[in-house]
Amino acid sequence: MELTKLDADELPAPLADLRKAYDELKAQNLSLDLTRGKPAAEQLDLSNELLCLPGKDVFKAGGTDTRNYGGLAGLPELREIFSGPLGVPVPQLLALGNSSLAVMHETIVFALLKGPVDGEPWVGQQIKFLCPVPGYDRHFSLLKQFGIEAVPVPLHEDGPDMDVVERLVAEDASIKGIWCVPKYANPTGAVYSEDTVRRLASMPTAAKDFRLFWDNAYALHHLTEDAVEIANVLELATAAGNPNRPFVFASSSKITHAGSGVAFFGGSPENVAWLTKNQSFGTIGPDKVNHLRHVAFLKDTEGLLAHMDKQRAVIAPKFEMVLYMLEKRLGGTGVAQWSKPKGGYFISLDVLEGTAKRVVQLAKEAGIVLTPAGATFPHGDDPRDRNIRLAPTFPDIREVALATEGVVTCVLLAAVEKLSGN
Ligand code: PMP
């Protein structure tokens, strides 16, 4: 039933039905959580061999004794495995600690305090970053932490609205960066088209030290057999005469163990030398034993891809379940739209404008925790109060089904309340 087309006198009946359904939902005393995009224990189990690797007497890789200090660039054997999938040549790819978010944080700190290779320190300047929305809340809070202004720009299915991006960066020299999750974006699953990547890599920018913060967190995280590829940002930027523009980030957090994976940084030789030099004051080298464990476990790029097939087998059915239930109960109602991602960790649900907060509140009171409404926008402020991020990976499939069913009831109730003027 298309709820948005109902006349005022037709709304009380569905409103009463939905209130009853909601009371029944509450009576189930659920305790479910669809908030953070964490791997489920079943996914972590796929990599448990790591816990016994590299083995008591195995600590050498090539000429490196991984137990010792040194090797700021990380173990070459591991960089080799990830180089192809991340589209970064081995000499320009660093294997670092356990969190790419930490590397993004460091990169911003170094740019603020020391300046990028081609610019003055950003600190003291009133700088801004473009933020395609909806986006990743931790990117936005990282900006807030350092007083960097977040400028929202619309994100479409093929990437940020490039007309808006090009106009803003061309006219405003205080815009120093843009957050990009180019493949299977958090939360919409957007995949940047070749044209988008090319335009980002080549567009004229008023700031000569403008950076693409290229967070390729889901580079290998396909949900279908269609292993989507994106254009190579480093190659395109270099060809366009902007070799230092991309900072590429990735990690194995959602490949092996989220808390003890390996983060990667890629960039031009100059950017890589810049990061390494700045890091050298704070560390004598990354955890190469962890790098070696990952080499022993994944073996080669093929091993890595085969491992991701196993991940997909665990999580794809959960996504299918959510999409099936959304379609079944919200399809044709006119009060919700959602993304159908081909990869990544999230489904982005747009509910009737002005009801997202209400939906999250109703769900909470029914024992279903959702990411706060607005979290996908800078400062938690979704101007249309309609976007909700669903993260189906962590709960088991029965819980995913129960939670989605409950969320749908809340979406419908909030919509009919709103349409009724209640
Ligand atoms: N970037 C994006 C887009 C993410 O969704 C996440 C995890 N939710 C991260 C980075 C965090 O990565 P890491 O575990 O490597 O710090």
Report what the structure shows.
This protein is an alpha/beta fold. The protein has two domains: 3-43 and 306-420, Alpha-Beta Complex (Aspartate Aminotransferase, domain 1), CATH 3.90.1150; 55-305, 3-Layer(aba) Sandwich (Aspartate Aminotransferase, domain 2). It contains 13 helices and 15 strands. It is globular. It starts with 11 loop residues before the first helix and ends with a helix. The model has no long low-confidence stretch (mean pLDDT 97). Bound molecules: 4'-deoxy-4'-aminopyridoxal-5'-phosphate. Keywords: Aminotransferase, Transferase. GO terms for molecular function: L-aspartate:2-oxoglutarate aminotransferase activity.
List keywords for this structure.
single chain, 422 residues, alpha/beta, Aspartate Aminotransferase, domain 1, 8-stranded mixed sheet, 3-stranded antiparallel sheet, binds 4'-deoxy-4'-aminopyridoxal-5'-phosphate, PyrdxlP-dep_Trfase, L-aspartate:2-oxoglutarate aminotransferase activity, AspAT_Ic
